[in-house]
Amino acid sequence: MKKTRSIPLKTKRFSLPEDEKRLTWLSMLLDAYHIVDKGVAASIDSEKKKGRKLACAKGCSSCCVTHKDIPLYPLELQGLIWYITEKLSGHEREILKSQLHSFSRDNACPFLLERSCAIHPMRPMACRQFNVFVKSCEEGEDPFHTRRNDVMDPVKKYVDQAFFIMLPYHGIEKESVRIKFIEAGEMHKMVRELHACNWKALAEKMEKPSSVERRTSKEEQ
Ligand code: SF4
Ligand code: SF4
Predict the structure, then answer these.
(1) Mean pLDDT of 97-125
(2) Looking at the CA of 63, which ligand is closest?
(3) pTM for this one?
(4) CA nearest neighbour of 97 among 203, 198, 6, 186
(5) 20-37: buried (b, 16+ CB within 10 Å) or exposed (e) per residue?
């Protein structure tokens, strides 16, 4: 599972100010992703100091084909469904819709389009954190099994902080309760597998035009 663009060391938060004003969950999710990206950047930096270079780069995406067990948290699922239905438009939307219609569990990730991630700003935490050092993966290689030492370990403190930010989405507001919930490993009980989601239903939702398409059509009238 992959980021199809390399991650800069100085991470910038992806922002959608107008949408975030209306959708508090969206701010939560983008804040959580920003924290995860910071953790990834810190790991890349630390490996670089040991002379180990990140191998992941734009266009390198065989991990998005190989991995079939990508974890997805409920807020992430909401985020990507929203992004796809409201923000994607034109050719990309049409191709993705048809890919989702015909998706089956044995396929590559349903969001991989022409070696690139169609939901890149909203890709799950697992994809953000799956990074490989030294050399890029061979076709079909899962480096987790072939060379575990080259696979980045997610930094727990960043992941936990991301969970902490996400928990109010589940109605868990109190800080001490959130900390206990995370420490007890309860977040992991909420996880789903990306390949097991009903992507055909999402393709049907995409029959309605996105907000971008609705705006363009209004402007043309
Ligand atoms: S969402 Fe899919 S295409 Fe995007 S990075 Fe993850 S595995 Fe790759
Ligand atoms: S090097 Fe491996 S993990 Fe990194 S982008 Fe390429 S295929 Fe994915």
Answers:
(1) 96
(2) 2
(3) 0.91
(4) 203
(5) beebeebbbbbbbbbbbb
